Amino acid sequence: MMVGGITLDPSTKMPIVVLKDPDNKLNLSIWVGPLEATAMATELEGIRPPRPMTHDLLRNLLSEFGATVEAAEITELRESTYFARIQLKTREGKIVEIDSRPSDAIALALRTKSPIYVAKQVLLDSSEPQETAAEPSASTDQNLAGVSRDKWSEILERMSPEDFKYKM
């Protein structure tokens, strides 16, 4: 998956990170905290703060100790809460998995250019299928992954809280 964008829930004003698959057939929306959304947005926009932020520090520590981030994976959805794990490879080649919030795993994956995976069951339970030109459907779902930020605002302003599958 890749980060398709970050937007705000119009009713709660909480940030939402949208993950999309490379074929643009599935979108997965995850509500995140404002600080974590900022950490993702600064990396996506290529903004370099004068001092390392938390996820930069974590990346730097891992590098200093010879560890690499192999992947971030959204592993589970339980009671409307997503869970994640960060897969690290130590200097000695040992694979270690660390429990993480999805927002931190995504922010770190962005900084280390590591892949982001979503467990199949999580996709089955919560993903948003997207229409393709070859597969028209009667659904009113829209392909939101390639939508501009201004268009995101317009789309979200028209939505009601009932339109969101998982509320925080």
Structure in words:
With 168 residues, the chain is α+β, with helices and mostly antiparallel strands. The protein has one domain (2-163): Bifunctional nuclease domain, CATH 3.10.690.10. It contains 5 helices and 8 strands, in the order E-E-E-H-H-E-E-E-H-E-H-E-H. It has helices at residues 34-44, 54-64, 102-112, 120-126, 149-158, and strands at 2-8, 15-20, 26-31, 68-78, 81-89, 95-100, 116-118, 128-129. The strands form 2 sheets. The protein has a 4-stranded antiparallel β-sheet with strand order 1-2-3-8, with helices on both faces. A 4-stranded mixed β-sheet has the order 6-5-4-7. A hairpin with a 5-residue loop joins strand 2 and strand 3. Helix 1 packs parallel to helix 3 and helix 2 (54-64) crosses helix 3 (102-112). It is globular.
Oligomeric state of this protein: single chain
Q: What is the averaged pLDDT score?
A: 83
CATH-scheme architecture: Roll
The gyration radius over C-alpha positions equals 17 Å
The CATH top-level class label: Alpha Beta
Assign the CATH superfamily: Bifunctional nuclease domain
CATH topology: Bifunctional nuclease domain
| Proportion of residues in helical segments | 25-40%
